[in-house]
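Q: Study each token:
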Amino acid sequence: MKTYQVNQEGFYGDFGGAYIPEILHRCVEELRNAYRKVLADEGFQKEYDALLKDYVGRPSPLYLAQRLSEKYGCKIYLKREDLNHTGAHKINNAIGQVLLARRMGKKRIIAETGAGQHGVATATVCALMGMECVVYMGKTDVERQRVNVERMQMLGARVEAVTSGNMTLKDATNEAIRDWCCHPADTYYVIGSTVGPHPYPDMVARLQSVISKEIKKQLMEHEGRDYPDYLMACVGGGSNAAGTIYHYLDDERVKIILAEAGGKGVETGLSAATIQLGRLGIIHGSKTLVMQDEDGQILEPYSVSAGLDYPGIGPMHANLAAQKRATVLAVNDDEALWAAFELTRLEGIIPALESAHALGALEKVKFQPSDIVVLTVSGRGDKDIDTYLKYKNNPEIF
């Protein structure tokens, strides 16, 4: 039987590893040696689980969306990560990594963020635990996610607006890595997705796997079986998708559908559909699929969604696509916006733009009436209201 888990060297098939500057070797090696021991420690697990329950509000509901199910001719359950404290799945990972950092004796936390949800989650946990927090965010994203910037600052974090490149997630990550290089001894870098050098992709996936752990239990309660026919999630770096599928990776009964950001269309040059358009390369310390030109220079991605606006992809997801374990669909801006308004009007749930891409993939799959589908709503749409308002009266979309 195939396995899709990470190996001892940090690779998922041909993807992964740790390609880092020499100055960070000690930091990454220290983390690699610590993370599994700490995550498996009984004291850590007890504190982590208690915070997920009493602070985050887990388990998040698995909601049967009746009207959406009728529309698509199957049974659709929504995994409601939007109902977590801070409004997204990102808090699951932030709590785990800051607890780990504290056990490793680190005093200063840095993070990157695109849509702002990971930045808010990290700032939230740092406020809870009394840790210094610096969040790097592209200037473009600072402007389109203003509310999340204000939330981070209110929580006591310093938000650094990055003005290099196209001033989005890639550039924020670059600056966070530069900071880490300058302060390797006392600083812990909380990466928000399943990207970066090993052990980050595996560690983030493990911390987010609470999502699929809950899905198994909740489906048993709802349906008398612990697996769906389809799992669906949006994928940029890939953290909510990794959490959604983690306990089902080797269960071939379950079809995996990942929705990436098609932008204006994969043929337009304005896209973030990395699995569709990427070639093997190295970005932010990991060998994966990267959008690049003939000379290997990274191309600037585009998406209406700040959280999916990234030219790489987590190595787990690159491998799942290469092994044909997952079907990856490019969902364009207009399709995602349309799907967001559809969910809002059918179910009274306003999703994050990132989650809307997963919803936009529903139109692209032929379901049977007996199919059970679990789709993760990775975050709530409060942060995207300004974007939604720009489009709500556009006759080309609605």
Summary: The chain has two domains: 19-52+90-203, 57-87+209-391. The chain has a mean pLDDT of 95.
